[in-house]
Amino acid sequence: MRWLLIVAGGCGVLAVGVLADYLRPGLPPDATASYVGRQTCVECHREESEKFAGSHHDHAMDLATPETVLGDFDDATLEHDGIVSRMFRRGDQFMIHTEGPDGQMQDFQVKYVFGLTPLQQYMVEFDRNETVAENEIARLQVLRISWDTENKRWFYLRPPDVADKLQPDDPLHWTGIAQRWQTMCAECHSTNLVRGFDDQDLTYHTTFSEIDVSCEACHGPASLHLELAERKSLFWDRHHGYGLVKLKGEDSEPQLQACAPCHSRRGLMDASYQAGDAFCDHFNLELLHEATYFADGQIKDEDYVYGSFIQSRMYHKNIRCTDCHDPHSLQLKFPGNATCTSCHQHAAGKYDTPAHHHHAVGTPGAACVNCHMPTRTYMEVDPRRDHSLRIPRPDLSVQLGTPNACSGCHISDQLEKVDADKRDELLEYADWQAAIEAGDESLAALMRATDQWCDEACEQWYGAERRRNPHFAEAITAYRKGDPDGVDQLLKIAVQPNLQTPAIARATALDELTADRSTIVRSVESAIQILADPQQEPMVRAAAIRLLTASPLPPTAMWRQLQPSLSADSRLERHEAAVGLARPAIYHELSAAQRRQLDTALLEVREAMMSANDRAGAHLGWAQLCEQRGMEAQAISAYETAIRVEPLRTGARPNLAALLEQLAQRDRGRVSPETLQRRLARAKQLRSEELPLLERDAGLVPDNAFLQYRLGLAYYLDGQFDAALAKLERAVELSPEDANFQQALQLLKEKLAQP
Fold first, then answer.
1. Of 434, 588, 628, 698, which is the most buried if we count CB atoms within 10 A?
2. Among the listed residues 653, 625, 628, the one whose alpha carbon sits nearest the alpha carbon of residue 639
3. Which parts are the TPR repeats (predicted)?
């Protein structure tokens, strides 16, 4: 009995100690964590730190030093578009002699570098003045001249689909806003980034806690974790746990949402994101738009993984990034097919065998990823795998013209049938697809033959069962082609369960339906049905709201449907509801109390927009919301700021000109003639400034119907009626189904008395 008493006494003492430790004063419930840097992590997490060293996250960004610069700066040269750029050293500085923002050849110092492999990029700082503190970064521009780390060569990173020389005033020029670090790169290449743009003096004061993607970028600020660890307590804090975001657990979502902000193609809604926050509270994921994805959701342009992965069966089976990738080194956990068979541990010979893949062991066709995660090359040298992890569907290729992994390999068998002068341009599957989209019928015929051959092989190997499930691509393609039942097909997938059709596809279906007024009317009931279901994902609810606010639903009914969304948990849903209800036809029919509630919600929208206050679009969007609500002074101020922030961008000037003309008309007889004259003179000046910018854009993209339409309207307002007629006719030719284009052309013809 004595030993039982001893054990019981020991347990009692332990229990008292544990209880005392748990109940002793801990961190305040409202304590806020701050960033402390990875050097504080190393002491306890040495193994993770060693894996992180040398990783892509470690080399996401760095100062340009002899240790970090991989490119040849030993007086090397590169010629492109008639420009000869020279890379050289000036003492400890890395320099480039190239075309500057004024079109003149100049010397620029490379101050920072991006990346490790397969390419490294280089950055130049501009506009540094006495107002920019030592720990702040002024405007950074990313050079298009890049270093191919695999082949040890300089190359010019040309924008997709741009064959001509970029002019210095082009946003795509390396000194333009599309190549600006702060707007395009910074938040995903550094930790705890604060953009710090002053939209009054147009100066950046950018800061970060660490220059690369470090521990706290994924785990969150660690000061509370550090404080708790130093207490040497038996338990972590009862209010704050162990002081970091919990990325492990049965649910994969916390980890996926920690990776998604940087590994997704998305818009920024709120810049205060920290690890652990909900993705849809800070970002708006791009849907399966035609320019970015094929109709079946395969990648066309860069999507950065997340938009693909959430389409996959793996995602719906709770698989997460670290099932395949080491979270610190970022390398695959296993070599070759073992990455897949580590989970797919079925009976021997089910998958990793010729009986399944029908290719010789050791050949490219025997690799799981080549069939289920085919690559597409971006940035000229960077092949990336499609993370939708799909079964190849050559039958859909035959039916819809979508890609498939089988044809991706076997299309090269057709090269001998291609004219010799084309072969050098068809290095990859994507090159064939681009040429076919551009109208090359001879290549299209070869592609169809290859798709058919692959489909027949799959039929022989796997039987008809492989086609057992319909695919959302069939509905999207039918609608885009104008098939009579395309609307009904889209409506069907829009309301399907998530396991049957992924949320991103259902949201895409709703967005497609929003493009045409006649389909909007038919889709209202489905949108209402979706909003009535609290289990619907935020991106689907947001798409339903966009459709609903574009519908002719009466204001009272619209308010009844959308008012609950103004207080939704998801910021994405709140924002879409607030912006939709701010439309003039709705806003001005609301009661004073309803308008006050909506105006309060729109303040959050403004805060989100100003997260990107270095872009004209942020101020343009807010100006329109102000104008719609009759807040003319605020609208004018925001339009002027948009013009000042991005003087070479179109859009703000004609909007402001129209507003000033409306005010001049409205206030005639109520304000002085001098005030009226100033407004009209400013409007005329704005339209004059806009015209050459529209001519530039329409000339760069001559097959874009909307740009031709806008230029036609601008010519009309400028009194150039013949030029207006030509552009409106071109817009109708490019997009004959657009009622607005047709109406504008008809009205102009009537004005010119043409039949």
1. 698
2. 653
3. 705-738
